[in-house]
């Protein structure tokens, strides 16, 4: 699994299994079939495509957008947006979600 400790300016596309311990100033898009573990910070949105696995233990200032991914949320996020019919994200006790929407 690739590990990123740095600050990345702009958007990031996850094209291999990745753990982020640093910060992304833009949005992160997880492309199938990859696994993304967030232990750092995403300053905009985290977009999870169908067929991906995402574990949020850090902070997403914007929205976590679920397009049919397997998502677990244990951190802090601005909002959770899930496609109608997508499997629901698993919310761990202690997670903070400011708003929740169905797309």
List the helices and strands and how they pair.
Elements: E1 2-4, E2 7-8, E3 12-14, E4 18-20, E5 23-24, E6 28-30, E7 35-38, E8 41-42, E9 46-48, E10 53-56, E11 59-66, E12 70-73, E13 76-82, E14 90-91, E15 96-102
Parallel strand pairs: 1-4, 2-5, 3-6, 4-7, 5-8, 6-9, 7-10, 8-11, 9-11, 10-12, 11-13, 12-14, 13-15
General description of the model:
There is one protein chain. With 103 residues, the chain is mostly beta strands. It has one domain (2-98). It has strands at 2-4, 7-8, 12-14, 18-20, 23-24, 28-30, 35-38, 41-42, 46-48, 53-56, 59-66, 70-73, 76-82, 90-91, 96-102. The strands form 2 sheets. Strands 2, 3, 5, 6, 8, 9, 11, 13 and 15 form a 9-stranded parallel beta sheet that branches. The protein is globular. The chain starts with a strand and ends with a strand.
Summary, kept brief:
By secondary structure, the chain is mostly beta strands.
Instruction: Specify the helix fraction band.
Output: under 10%
Please tally the helical runs, counting DSSP H or I stretches of 4 or more residues: 0
- Using the CA coordinates, give the radius of gyration: 12 Å
Number of strands: 15
- Quaternary state of the chains: single chain
Low-confidence stretches: none
Number of individual domains: 1
Q: What is the approximate shape?
A: globular
H and E order: EEEEEEEEEEEEEEE
Mean pLDDT: 95
* First and last CA, distance: 31 Å
Pairing-aware structural class of the strands and helices?
mainly beta
Strand content: over 45%
Question: Biggest sheet, open or closed, and with what strands and sense?
Answer: 9 strands, parallel
């Amino acid at each position: 699994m690739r590990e990123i400790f740095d600050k990345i300016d702009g958007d990031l596309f996850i094209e291999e299994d990745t753990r982020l311990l640093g910060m992304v100033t833009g949005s992160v898009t997880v492309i199938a079939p990859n696994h993304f573990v967030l232990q750092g910070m995403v300053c905009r949105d985290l977009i999870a495509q169908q067929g991906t696995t995402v574990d949020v233990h850090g902070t997403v200032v914007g929205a976590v957008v679920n397009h049919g991914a397997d998502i677990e949320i244990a951190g802090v996020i601005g909002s959770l947006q899930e496609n109608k019919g997508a499997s629901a994200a698993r919310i761990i006790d202690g997670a903070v979600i400011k708003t929740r929407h169905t797309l």
